[in-house]
Amino acid sequence: MQRLQGIAVSPGVAIGEAIIFGNEGFRISRRFLPREAVASELARLDQAIAAAAKEIDLNRQRVAEQLGDDYAAIFSAHLQMLQDRKLREELEQMIRDRHYSPEYSVSRALRRYAKVFLSLEGDTMAERANDVFDIEKRLLRHLLGERREGLGELTGEVLILAHNLTPSETANLNPNFVKGFVTETGGPGSHTAIVAEALDIPAVVGTGPFLTEVSGGETLIIDGDNGLVILQPDEETLARYRHEVDEHKQLAAKLETLRDLPSDTLDGQHVTMFGNIEFPAEVKPCLDRGAEGIGLYRTEFLYLTRDVQPSESDHLAAYREVIEALDGRPVVMRTLDLGADKIPNFPMPDDERNPFLGLRSTRLALKHVDMFRIQLRAMLRATTAGPIKIMFPLITNLLELRRAKMVLSDAMEDLEEEGIPFSRDIDIGMMVEVPSAVVMMDHFVQEVDFFSIGTNDLIQYALAVDRSNKDVASLYTGSDPSILRLIKMAIDTAAQHDKPISMCGQMCGNPIYTMVLLGLGLRTFSVVPAAIPEIKRVCRSVTIPQCEEFAARVMSLESARDVKTALREELIKILPDQLI
Prior knowledge:
Blueprint: E1 2-5, E2 7-10, E3 13-21, E4 27-28, H1 38-67, H2 69-82, H3 85-97, H4 102-119, H5 123-144, E5 158-162, H6 167-171, E6 178-183, H7 191-199, E7 203-205, E8 219-223, E9 228-231, H8 235-256, E10 272-277, H9 283-288, E11 294-298, H10 301-304, H11 312-326, E12 331-334, H12 361-367, H13 369-382, E13 389-392, H14 398-418, E14 427-432, H15 435-439, H16 441-444, E15 450-453, H17 455-463, H18 481-496, E16 501-503, H19 514-519, E17 524-527, H20 532-539, H21 544-555, H22 560-574
Parallel strand pairs: 3-5, 5-6, 6-7, 10-11, 10-17, 11-12, 12-13, 13-14, 14-15, 15-16
Antiparallel strand pairs: 1-9, 2-7, 3-4, 3-8, 8-9
Helix pairs in contact: 1-2, 1-5, 3-4, 4-5, 11-13, 12-14, 13-14
């Protein structure tokens, strides 16, 4: 049994069969062969080895002709390794005696070889491990061919193991089959983590290298509550975690009873509970859990899940689907927030060394005004189907906001000239995600109808922590006193000017923060569907004066560790059975 410590980004526990998702889209799982298929599968292995050998030899010849034999030596080494008699015998034995598929046999054997190289000291040994991985990929490419399976073609319940998953790859996971995932890279607050929460599947990221330690088909445990991954668990550990899975199910059943109850505090203060979505289909899970509307519709996933940019019709169809599903309830549509770790399907700067500080979000939209106008036109046209609000993300200064509003005005004029119906009676808002937006809110209040605090980016920019970097993950926390002060400044300024303000970041979807946020004056939460019942439960268990007293005590603390300890202790005091 082996334990890996990573970063918990989506809670829950998952136990199941692992599949490894490689960088080239390979899905390798343990598959057994019927006895009568062994001969044909051995022949298929022979063909794959011969094709790979021919490919390597051609590469060796080309490099030798252009650069000389010294540079071609790497391919000679690959060829020698591929044609090694001992490797061939081992692969044949796995197929003939154990009835493993050739794909699984290749992956299992070569990963064991790579693990040996990685265990030895020195850069040369690491290079040899990379050579082994290269041979594995080459053989798998020939073995799988057109039968290569991606994450969208799963047919059974699995746990995904990968070096990394992009936000779009994560968004394409089918939660009916994918019960959890683990990645070697990544950090808290990344958009991959956000999507994992939306899918309501346990996820752990930033474990560091481990894929050579496991083969597809093995049983593992993903502990999304504590950021643990357990490889080859023993029976005692399996029994303990199965009991924990049962506890999660019992709590979920208890929370289900809150679905139709209001999010009112014990002293009668109503707390508005909205849901966050990426796709129209997520509206139903939000409503099923008691959401009063959608407080954040992340429209950029229209760009991330297709090979071509969405047309105005594509946008309009998606927006109308959301509005119709809400049946008169409100929806806040955020304009595209691309860039950083959400790379769109059009050219980005090649020299983007700090993508989170570069051309992203509204900056990117204003750089590609034609694309921005297409989205805004579709949003305006969707107003004929029901009530919507439009929100601009990552606004850092007044000029940026005014330019975005100008593009919106131009879109309105274009639609009027073309005689296309839309409603001008629409609220315009902005995200509060950078310290400059908080500092300048007394000016922004004159420009917008509402605000929404995006804590994922606010934490990142206020604490100078890359939220996708596992090496500084411990510094990325909403418990830092400076973050609480920024949130209080934003809420107080909005209240002074009678402007609605909500929060839609991951922070407000974590029940340990609910009491302090209520105490700071927050009355509108927008969270992933799975978090709605938990946050509602906390709201219905406290009074506002109680939360205000607690928030005042927390605001006097000096460190993130002290704040988090106080938050946990208070939540356990209020709800002893809460799983934290």
